[in-house]
Amino acid sequence: MIIGVPKEIKNNENRVGLTPAGVAELRKHHHTVYVQASAGVGSGFQDAEYEQAGAVVLPTIADVYAQAEMIIKVKEPIQEEYALIREGQLLFTYFHFASSEELTHAMIERKATCLAYETVERADRSLPLLVPMSEVAGRMAPQEGAKYLEKPLKGRGILLGGVPGVKPAHVLVLGGGIVGTQAAKVAAGLGAQVTIMDISLNRLRELDDIMPKNVVTVYSNEYNIREAIKTADLIVGAVLIPGAKAPHLITRDMLKTMKAGTVLVDVAVDQGGCIETCKPTTHEDPTFIIDDIVHYCVANMPGAVPYTSTLALTNATLPYAVKIANLGWQEACRQNSDLRLGLNVVNGEVVYKGVAEAWNLPLVSVDSVLEPAHV
């Protein structure tokens, strides 16, 4: 298979879809890999390293798209890339279609085949290609929140861990999954008082067993959320419904009950956000203020630590990429149920329920787009 790795052009996105080690692995299986010049520089990988691993370095993004049967990326294509995508071309990347109607319609119009990292799902309901970036974003959330709690950045002027004689900040984490767990660990490690809320009692029991004493668990419902936000200094939104829009757990009217300078970090923003007033921001301009509440809603948080993020992501994606390249996407999806669930759009038809429901689009059965294997 011919594989293309373009340079990410989303604002301050320094990750890359494939490392030189990944190129070497694909070359072992006799696949051709084209990498755009300087695609890996932001993550610490030079063009010469890709060439030594067996890739062909091409000068422009248009060259890469024109040559490749499968594009391996990190973030969804942005408007400048839409026209480069060919009918039937496979894109293997994060899409988060349920948060962008424009992107969804663009991929339908281009008749692309979109295999989304975030909906590749194992039988145990775990999301192997979302987990590494959820771990990074979860650990970053208290780090970013602590920074924006500083008064010069319009926060409350509170040190997350406090000092002897002065109580620490109160951190509220909405969601006890990967992001929430990592956020709570880091916040607790910095000395904050942490509350995690979730709707799963079993998950709350697990968290209660493994978390330190400065972390408490509370069942998540609207009443409890409304009470908790009154005393929170930092709120981390960490709610995920795979492939679908996140529910709004904090609504606009709730902001008025918070303390001025409270910081909201909505890690779910790339799936529509679990805080109603959040809209995607960038590393270049990460925050905005509504009703004296600081909103941090960067949609690609792990892009700020690209070396760590690229290695963590490609550790997870490479085995799947090799399988797709070896078998072709149709046969790979027939043989591997994880990948089958990753299919969101196939040749311009929506095959993932969460995406169809988000934008009221016709849903086509995956079976109908996976042609039977030839005997």
UniProtKB/TrEMBL annotation:
CDD domains from the UniProt entry: L-AlaDH
Gene3D superfamilies: NAD(P)-binding Rossmann-like Domain
Record domain Alanine dehydrogenase/pyridine nucleotide transhydrogenase NAD(H)-binding: where: 149-297
Keywords of the record: NAD, Oxidoreductase
SUPFAM superfamilies for the chain: Formate/glycerate dehydrogenase catalytic domain-like, NAD(P)-binding Rossmann-fold domains
Domain of life: Bacteria
PROSITE patterns on file: ALADH_PNT_2 (PS00837)
Alanine dehydrogenase/pyridine nucleotide transhydrogenase N-terminal domain: residues covered: 4-137
EC number: 1.4.1.1
Reaction it catalyzes: L-alanine + NAD(+) + H2O = pyruvate + NH4(+) + NADH + H(+)
InterPro entries, sorted: Ala_DH, Ala_DH/PNT_CS2, AlaDH/PNT_N, AlaDH/PNT_NAD(H)-bd, NAD(P)-bd_dom_sf
Xref: PANTHER family: ALANINE DEHYDROGENASE
Family: Belongs to the AlaDH/PNT family.
NCBIfam families: alaDH
Name by which UniProt lists this protein: Alanine dehydrogenase
Species of the source: Hymenobacter cavernae
